[in-house]
C-alpha cells in the first residue's frame, strides 16, 4: 500500500521465520531486485514448503530486471511438478503465460503446453483465463 518505511520498521519485530519470508517481498517492493533475487533464491534453497510462491516471486523479480528468459527458467519447471500449492497455482500460471507473451512469438504453443500439464492434475483449480488463450474464452 506504499507504506514501505512502516513495513521496514516492523520487520525487525517479527519472528525470524516471518522475517525470512517478508524481507524479499519488501526488497521487491523497494525495487531492490538484486537483494530480492538473492533472498528468494536462498529461500528456495533452504525449504520447499512455499517453493511455488517463492518461485513465482523470484520469476517476477527476474522479469522486473528485464530478464524474461531466466524468469521462465525459474517458474516453468515448478508448474510442471506434480506437487503444487493449489492456492498459488492460478497466479503462477497467469504470470508464466504473461512472461511467455513478453518473451517470444511462441507464446501460444508454450501456454498450451503448460495448460496441458496443469489441467490434467488441477483442472478444478485453474480456469482457462489463467492461461490467457483467447480462443478458449
Descriptive account of the structure:
This protein is mostly helical. It has one domain (15-136): Alpha Horseshoe (Serine Threonine Protein Phosphatase 5, Tetratricopeptide repeat). 69% of the residues lie in helices and 0% in strands. The protein contains 7 helices and no strands. The chain has helices at residues 4-11, 16-29, 33-46, 51-64, 68-80, 89-103, 107-122.
Supply Rg: 16 Å
Content-based structural category: mainly alpha
CATH class bucket: Mainly Alpha
Provide the succession of SSEs: HHHHHHH
Largest sheet: none
Count the helices. How many? 7
Mean pLDDT: 87
Roughly how many Å apart are the termini? 32 Å
Which stretches are low in confidence, meaning pLDDT under 50 for 5 or more residues running? Answer: none
Percent in strands: under 5%
Helix content: 55-70%
Structure summary, number of beta strands: 0
Number of domain units: 1
CATH domain topology:
Serine Threonine Protein Phosphatase 5, Tetratricopeptide repeat
Rough shape?
globular
CATH superfamily: Tetratricopeptide repeat domain
- CATH architectural type: Alpha Horseshoe
Amino acid at each position: 500500500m506504499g507504506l514501505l518505511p512502516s513495513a521496514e520498521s516492523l520487520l525487525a519485530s517479527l519472528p525470524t521465520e516471518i522475517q525470512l519470508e517478508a524481507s524479499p517481498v519488501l526488497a521487491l517492493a523497494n525495487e531492490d531486485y538484486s537483494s530480492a533475487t538473492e533472498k528468494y533464491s536462498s529461500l528456495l534453497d533452504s525449504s520447499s514448503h512455499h517453493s511455488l510462491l517463492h518461485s513465482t516471486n523470484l520469476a517476477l523479480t527476474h522479469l522486473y530486471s528485464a530478464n524474461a528468459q531466466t524468469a521462465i527458467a525459474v517458474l516453468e519447471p515448478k508448474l510442471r511438478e506434480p506437487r503444487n500449492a493449489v492456492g498459488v497455482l492460478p497466479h503462477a500460471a497467469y504470470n508464466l503465460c504473461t512472461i511467455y507473451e513478453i518473451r517470444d512469438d511462441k507464446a501460444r504453443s508454450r501456454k498450451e503446453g503448460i495448460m496441458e500439464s496443469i489441467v490434467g492434475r488441477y483442472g478444478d483449480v485453474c480456469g482457462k483465463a489463467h492461461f490467457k488463450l483467447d480462443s478458449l474464452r
